[in-house]
Design brief:
Layout: E1 2-5, E2 13-14, E3 17-18, E4 21-26, E5 33-37, E6 42-46, E7 58-63, E8 66-71, E9 80-83, E10 91-96, E11 102-107, E12 117-122, E13 127-131, E14 140-146
């Protein structure tokens, strides 16, 4: 995943850590952006042209040893990204009123891509954010799955 800062900073990292801020989260492989499916509260991905103005914004800031990921939507209750545990092998991402800490790993390879990117993982696991089956479809589910390649 790549993070696009809304603050205009050239680098999203400082001293080896992610800078707190408001970001758009983009999947490197599918080139889609992380958003929310309003009726189900599940996290989904959307092509840029389907991302409504002001949507797809996430506040990422330190929480304990990790980071909280909160949807930015003025006038609405806080909605923090979490896992929607439903017994399936690949766990969908959802939102909750309760913050959880995500591990944000700086991914250094492959450098030829020419931008900074991160892997968002559940606590101390290899389970990271991924678009379901690499789908580029509008509304494709974003879920947690084991890291299987160098970048997400």
């Amino acid at each position: 995943m790549t993070l696009h800062s809304t603050g205009g900073s050239s680098s999203i990292f400082q001293d080896g850590r992610l800078k707190p801020g408001i970001y758009k989260v983009r999947n490197v492989y599918t080139q889609t952006f992380v958003d929310i499916e309003e009726h189900s509260r599940k996290i989904c991905s959307r092509p840029l042209q389907n991302l409504e103005e002001g949507n797809g914004l996430w506040e990422i800031k330190p929480l304990g040893a990790g980071y909280s990921v909160k949807r930015v939507e003025p006038g609405k209750p806080d909605q923090f990204c979490t896992l929607a545990v439903d017994g399936s092998k690949y766990i969908p991402l959802s939102v909750s009123a309760y913050p959880v800490a995500w591990k944000v790993e700086i991914v250094h390879e492959p450098k030829h891509l020419g931008f900074e990117y991160v892997r968002l993982c559940w606590e101390n696991t290899v389970w990271s954010w991924a678009v379901s089956w690499g789908s580029k479809d509008n509304g494709a589910e974003v879920r947690s799955s084991p890291v299987q390649r160098t970048y997400d």
